[in-house]
Amino acid sequence: xxxxxFISMLTELTSLNLLEAAGMxxxxxxxxxxxxxxxxxxxIKGPDMEGNTREYKLNGLALFLMTAFVIALVQSMGxxxxxxxxxxxxxxxxxxxxxxxxxxxxxxxxxxxxxxTTTGFWRGYFVGVLSNPTWLGVDIKLFSYRPSLIGxxxxxx
Length: 157
Prior knowledge:
flat, 4 strands, mainly alpha
């Protein structure tokens, strides 16, 4: 049997696959966000674009190691298999991108309610109107790398 390619995987998507993938993406991103709030980490101060000093909590490595440990534990107990990341790759790809575009849209419109954008729609949408949007004390732009990089590590595991 030939190995499936990405195009054939996309053509075989079902609404159930997409719902399951959306659930996996939301749980994964939600748990990482919760971890970004509660897991301790070194705090450093750094300037923002306006020249103000901001404090950043650096706990990404701790989150990565905790994720690797938990995934290894649940996989060894038979509760979860990383093979689902391969078998559902197309659905996860679609769900993750829909989530990313929805988050970018939400951030864009939240920012335009706060301040008027002078960068134009496309630059404001993809780069951001606000330089350091935060939610519950988490810098959203800094956080956005965590699910993608940790997810990539899980796919390559």
